[in-house]
Amino acid sequence: MSLLMKMQTQLNDSMPGSAAELISVALDSGDIYSAAAVYGLADIDDKKSLAKLLTAKRRDVLKLARWEHTPAEVLALFADVEDEAVRLRIDKNPATQTQTLSNLYRDEADISFITLIAKHANTSAEVLWQILHSSTATELVRAVVKNPNTDAETLALVAEKFADQFDAELASHPATSADLLMRLYARGNEFVQAAVVAHESCPDALFTLAAKQQNSLILRHLASNPHIDKRLAARLALDKDYVVRRAAASHKNLPAWVLQELVKDKSEYVRRVVAAREELTPEMVNCLIADTDHWVRQRVALNPALSESQLYRLSQDEHKEVRRAVARNPKTNPALLSQLANDKDSWVRAGVANQPNTQASTLIILAEMDDVDVLGGVAANPRTPQSVLQRLSSSDSADVRRAVILNTTAVRQTLLPLLDDPYYLNRMMLVQNKALTADDKWTLHDDPDPVVRFSLFTWFSRQYQQ
């Protein structure tokens, strides 16, 4: 190796001290992922050099144009490439930003590409309005109506121009006005009416009208609307159809006497919803604890309203999902968690391992087990001693090692060996870890995986932008 090459290698191995040095390393590497990560950081001259690297090979452009992590500025660069395959990928890429989509639409004539723009989550209301005026093709108009960025004015125009053709989409759109909802309800079928009464902006007058219906579909959607008043919610919670009662059972305004009825409801689906409510009285909880349906008992076992004696009773339940729910309950004390750590089922023990209230002494015992779910919980628990985390960082399981990486108490010495982790996702997650220094992270700059390199150069770019 020549002296010049050795000097260049040493320069690249040393952590860059500035944005200019970071960009220089990316350019010297010839790596499109590193170049894409620093593109937004570069000045005009460096941008030209990076653009030349990024667009040199068509296969690279196609690859990055499709990749959901490609920065918006790089996608904007690719938008100027005269290539239908590239444009197709940019139109579909969720990272493509509003201005790029606007520019693409301005020069677009192909209706299939325009439809993709109409479907995109970042397309502006203004462009959607323009698209609506450009064509009456069914799929294109439907794409506009279903786009969450479409405004009330555009939706009203659709209702006017296309009669009832798109009423189902209009009834579900969050921007649909109260006036339009009134018209949709008046002319709609039961499915449209159901969507209208569940809408955030549904007028109170329609609540009254819909409550007179005998249609379970409409009543169920009505019951799910959080804006209905206390009296109507109570009435629907006692409806003859269990699907209506189940929808109303989660309503925040239900009076206590209605809840008292629902904890004894003949449908387990209704009782399951009630069991998750936090304002239950001790008497209601006792009723649900004795329920014959184990999903009811499981849901009430998660309820923070339970007393210690009620939690202990449920910890003896025959069903593992119920015992696991006790292990996950934020009110469960360390003593009971210690008992559950010896449960016959590993799924329950895993719940204990993940519980923030579990004491270090219990976690040390759990760390000796061989179940991956249990070990993953121990590795992620902030109470786990550092010595145990260090041992688990050499686990055969990538999931357990990743849990150590995600543990906010893991120190630098515990994490350093994981920079050589065989699984790329674990190495990538270390880039964001606050316990490691910038020098530690820079060792990943020539990582064999492009996602790791991209993450690292992106992280350094953000440091220099601050």
Question: What would you say this structure looks like, in words?
Answer:
- With 466 residues, the chain is an all-alpha fold.
- The chain has a domain of 78 residues.
- It is 64% helix and 0% strand.
- The chain is flat and about 70 Å long.
- The chain starts with a helix and ends with a helix.
- The N terminus is likely disordered.
Largest sheet: none
User: What is the structural class?
Assistant: mainly alpha
Helix content: 55-70%
| Spatial gap, N to C terminus | 38 Å
Topology, number of strands: 0
- Alpha-carbon Rg, integer: 29 Å
Oligomer: single chain
Q: Which segments are poorly predicted (pLDDT under 50) over 5 or more consecutive residues?
A: 1-11
Strand percentage lies at: under 5%
Q: How many helices?
A: 35
Mean pLDDT, all residues: 95
